[in-house]
Predict the 3D structure of the following.
Amino acid sequence: MFHEHLVKMLKELNVEGSGAIPRDLASISLEFEGTNVVMTDAPPGLELSAVIGDVPGDHQEAIFLKLLRGNFLGQATKRACLGLDEEGTHIMLTAAIPTIRSYREFRDAVEDFINTVAFWKHEAVTL
């Protein structure tokens, strides 16, 4: 289903070559609104991840506190999770959607994720 949903979404977005995506593709990185979003097939669901920005050299305690508050009950992240990459140099947003039953759920999950990324990019720079 990942392949079919991905092709349909790319056609909706008028992306050239959307029909040429390999069927066995397990992960793809696409740019939305200036942000690379990695979409990974995780049957029966989907995983999404994106870099929000760099961890600032100063005010780290304040930004980490803001990220923790954002994660609280998933309210400010639409159930995604804010964290750091493996090196601790980038702020990441990740989401694991356990089940995708329709194209609409797929598209809505991706749209919510992109909107959440945009929100947190703004929050990260307004500290």
Q: What stands out?
A: The radius of gyration is 15 Å.
